Amino acid sequence: MGKNIHVVPVGNRWGVKQEGRQAPLSTHRTQELAENAARPIARQNKSELITHGRNGQIRSKDSFGNDPCPPKDKEH
């Protein structure tokens, strides 16, 4: 499983960062554009896409690998 990909505020823009790297892989005008750029990277790395809000707190997570906490199947 690869390193997680984070969408984080970078000044007045949004950055796509890989865990363990200081510099963003790319920066974007909006959070949505950054998420759209980050999703294929997370999918390729089989990692998690973690989106942060302007305050730095995690807003959402999307797993593209072996999710350590998959949701329980409620239908069966």
Describe the protein.
By secondary structure, this protein is an alpha+beta fold. The chain is built from 1 helix and 5 strands; from the N terminus they run E-E-E-H-E-E. Strands 3-2-1-4-5 form a 5-stranded mixed beta sheet, covered by helices on one side. A hairpin with a 7-residue loop joins strand 2 and strand 3. The chain is globular and about 35 Å long. The mean pLDDT is 89.
Physical arrangement of strands within the biggest beta sheet: 3-2-1-4-5
Beta-strand residue fraction: 25-35%
Structural class determined from secondary elements: alpha+beta
- Give the mean pLDDT: 89
**What is the oligomer described by this structure?**
single chain
Number of strands: 5
Number of helices: 1
Overview in brief:
The protein contains 1 helix and 5 strands; from the N terminus they run βββαββ.
Keywords:
76 residues, 5-stranded mixed beta sheet, 34% strand, alpha+beta
List the helices and strands and how they pair.
Layout: E1 5-10, E2 13-18, E3 26-28, H1 31-45, E4 48-52, E5 58-63
Parallel strand pairs: 1-4
Antiparallel strand pairs: 1-2, 2-3, 4-5
